[in-house]
Structure formats: structure tokens, C-alpha cells
Predict the structure.
Amino acid sequence: MRLMLVIGTRPQIIKSAPIIREAKKHKEIELQLIHTGQHYDFEMSRIFFNEMELPDPLVNLNVGSGTHAWQTGNMMVKLEQTMLSQKPDIVVVPGDTNSTIAGALTASKLQLPVAHVESGARSYDLRMPEEVNRRLTDHCSSLLFAPTKNCAENLTAEGLPRNCIRVSGDTMYDALLQHAPAASKTDIVKKLELQSEEYATLTLHRPENVDNPSNLMKIAKALITLKQLTIVFPAHPRTKQCLDAANLLTKIEAISHIKLIDPLGYHEMLQLTKHARMVLTDSGGLQKEAFWLHTPCITLRDRTEWIETTQLGVNTLVGSSPQKIVRAAREIMITSSVKSKLEKLRNPFGDGRAAERILAEMLKRR
Ligand code: UD1
């Protein structure tokens, strides 16, 4: 079975690592790893291949950054050539990025079967490009690997056939378990001169927050107000550009309780999250990682696709409202033994064997 796996961004490399490892165990699988080049900086891509000991992609399409249509269209043109020459039996697309929809749409137009990993997640907010990407990807895929029961229910509610849907668990959780020992060996907490549980980890990169100067200003105001809290902020390259454009970069850099740093690799990021008092983020993946690492999360969005975490009471949605951000953070700061409460919660995202199930199902249906 020629299995083409299309990736392009930082979170997709993480989600795919357990699938790549599992594929290597099956002699009957020929893995064709394709990188679209959506992410290209060392700390957005290569570092994850190195840390996770992944094979080099068979092809890197080097598409790079651009507008959504330009980026997605260019990926499709290049992916079509690649699929025609590599002749995969199945195309696997993880997540919800422009690389995901480009892979799914190109394959479906070539009448190749598509498997979507992380299928059925829904924020019901069509302003987010990811929501459009994940819905369209689900509707042109023939195998839908839902990380949770709730995701599977979202798919059936949209009329997708039950025999295409499998609750596999979340490959991001597989990855976290596989890399927890290496993560615990990093000394990032010490290196940044932090004390365990006495700081917050912040990430920010969603267009609705960073491309919108008014929202960016509101979030910055909340962060500046939270003087009693050390905030570690590994900033995405687009976020740095947006902060600079809004004349906020030098201002944030000058604030003593905010540590603005370059993006971190996977192991250091896991360790930084594990030891944080709380996470502040607009990322999808980090909301789940915070939960698995027993760190409460404040999500700087109005909606989330991971309602499993809000339903368990460990993730608070605050949008970009400075009052709500500050209130939520202060509440966590004064609440004791939050981590021990989180440790006792059930995990709706599987048992760390999602990749094993995904590969077994694909082989069964071959
Ligand atoms: C993309 C995904 C998002 C995912 C995120 C993870 C889409 C629509 N968005 O968002 O779902 O959560 O990746 O990080 O697919 N840039 C660099 N170096 C890089 C990559 C990007 O400097 O290696 C800068 C460029 O200025 C670029 C901007 O970041 O224009 C945005 O990159 P892009 O890939 O379009 O979107 P992300 O914000 O990374």
C-alpha cells in the first residue's frame, strides 16, 4: 500500500509523527511523506523532524507563505504533479490547515481515497480558515478518523456515512506520551529562570487576534495588566510581524514580567506547558496539550473546536476581552491544587494508540 501523507505546518508534523512510526512497522506499507513547505523556518519545521527523529520528506514542494488562495492553489498544482508521479493508493491528511485542504481536494479530484486524521472537530465559527478547511476536508474524505466521540457525532450530524467514521483517539496524545520522557529531560524552566507553577505560557497566532490591531491591542493590555504573573511568550513569526506593525513589539519587549522568546521545539514546549501555572493561547493543539499535562487553559477565542476541554471545566473561553482575560488568570492564580484536580479527570482523547488504530483500519480496507 502506497500511503501518501501530506503535511506542511508545525502541528501537522507533531500529529503525523506517531503515524510515521507506526507505518514503519508494517512492511506492506510504502510511506510517501510530502511536505508542502507551508512552514519553512528552522524552528517551525526542521526542529520537529530532528527532535522526533522523522525521515526526511520524499518531496518538499517549497510553497511558502502567501494569501490563502495563492498558497492553497499553488500547493494543489504541485500536489497534483506529485500524486500523478507517485501513484499513492491512499492520501492521508492530518489537521485543518491549508496544506490539509490542498491535499484532500487534489486527491479527491484525482479520484484517490482520502483519509482525514483529526476529523469531525468543529468550532462552528466560519470566520476561522481552519473551520472551512476541516469541514471541506471531511466532506471529500472516505475515511474519517475522529479523535473523540463528540467529533464522530459532529460528522454523523452532518450526514456523513457512519461506515466511513472511526473513533481512533488523538494522534497528538500518542505523540505527547511518546515524547514525555525526552521532554522531561529539557531544562527550559531553569534556562528561562522560572519557578515551576509561577508563570504562564502564552501563544498567539490566530488571524482574528493578531491580524486585527484592535484585538491585538486589547490582548496586549490584559497581558500588561497581569503584573504579578510572569508570562513566557514563544512568539510565532507572524505574531512578531503583527506586533511590530501595530507598534507593540518594542513595548512588549520592555515589559519586565513578559518574556518574549523565539518559537520553541516540541520537547521544550511540552516541558514549559507542564510546569506552567496556566496556559493562555489561541492555538487548538495547545488547549489539548495543556489538558493532558494538567495545566488549566485560558483560550483567547470566542469558540473552540475542543469542547471536550471546556465541558470538563479546565478550559475557559475569554475571546480578546481584557477584563475576561485578567479575571480568568487571577482566578487560577488564587485557586490552590488545580493540577491535582486535573489529574483525576478522564481523558476523552483516547489511550495513546490512535496511530495504531488508524493504520490497522487503512490496511483492513485496502
Ligand atoms: C498555520 C495554519 C494554522 C495552524 C498554524 C500553526 C492555515 C490557514 N493556518 O497558520 O491552522 O494553527 O499554521 O502554526 O493553514 N511564517 C514565517 N515562517 C514560517 C511560516 C510562516 O515567517 O515558517 C510567517 C509568514 O509571514 C506567513 C505567516 O507566518 O505569512 C503565516 O503563516 P501561514 O502558514 O500562512 O499561517 P500560520 O499562521 O502559520
Summary: DSSP finds 18 helices and 13 strands in the chain. The chain has a mean pLDDT of 97. The first helix runs from residue 10 to 24. Residues 9-11, 38-41, 44, 65, 96-98, 129-130, 205, 236-238, 241 surround uridine-diphosphate-N-acetylglucosamine (CB under 6 Å).
